[in-house]
């Protein structure tokens, strides 16, 4: 039966290359006199295609018993260029992603080849399925942004390591990769306790971040004509900042809600929430006697993206949101990762936004010029790939905990719902506190 399994695998891969479905009738012709063993041969062929080539065999037409082959785990690249012959190489890609994850989210080149050597794959030695594996891994997968290949910091002599690339992060998850590895070993993901726990946290945080994105999107799609009180408050807030005046409850009631005065509290609270989440401003009472309110930039930041003397909406909301994405992505986020999240909110590079104007210029120039963001080329990336980090002004004016609290509020939860990020933010708060105490002690002793 082994020969028939291999024959069927080759036939199914041929159909995949031709972008044609595979019919049960065709497969039975391939195995000929072993038709009585069709189910066993078919299942073994499917398993082989899954484990070696990283493809799923799925029924696409139950009536006519037709099947299609699809790349696993949500990935969109099989390592075969259009118009070229060759075997799908997704299997080795998934395997390497698994090694990187199991090694703590980065694996040295030596660690990767040590594992691959156990499977009969060697650098510089052509493989029947994967061709020249070193070029495939260090060039093709890197070029397609599934892997990041970089020199280990401060290594002398130079040592290199692999990490997941932005496309891997965008298309699949740690849990999916772990499930694949577990299936290869004939077990389940929980058999790898620490990796399973990390994958679960990753799933939960991704779900929460996605919900936060949806929440931000809903808020950023406000109809300003219907919510005129929001326009009034944001415009008056700019005027209040410039002319050092406040917004009075009387002004709001007479200029915006008029006949809805009985609903003032509800309308006012909703407007305050929108101003906070979309524009990144806090509404605070500055004169309790006369019921006057002022608008203030959130989280200790001192820049709202509106140039003096110019009209425009405050843009602190999108800045805070990007700072949150960078933090949640491990303190650096590739340009692709940032735009992927912003696209979910209806914000696109090169497409003017009702609130934020031309967002690419705002993010890569204005926020960078103001030193809230750092925008730099990823080390050793070829072709050039860029990433965002917090700029020195962001570090000086706000904290990871404040940004995490903002994201949690957008999602309607609390910061501890993002366990790993919350732990890091707590450590950051503690370190900042120790630094302040140390600085105070030094200045006190010097004065003494």
Automatic annotation (TrEMBL):
Q: Could you mention a single GO BP entry for this protein? A: negative regulation of transcription by RNA polymerase II
Q: Where are the transmembrane segments?
A: none
InterPro entries in alphabetical order: MAGE, MAGE_WH1, MAGE_WH2, MHD_dom
Domain MAGE, residue spans: 1-199, 247-425
**Can you supply one Gene Ontology CC term for this chain's record?**
nucleus
Q: Which SMART domains match?
A: MAGE
Q: Which Pfam families match?
A: MAGE (PF01454)
Q: PANTHER family from the entry?
A: MELANOMA-ASSOCIATED ANTIGEN B16, MELANOMA-ASSOCIATED ANTIGEN MAGE ANTIGEN
Q: What is this protein called?
A: MAGE domain-containing protein
State the species of origin: Mustela putorius furo (European domestic ferret)
Q: What is the lineage of its organism?
A: Eukaryota, Metazoa, Chordata, Craniata, Vertebrata
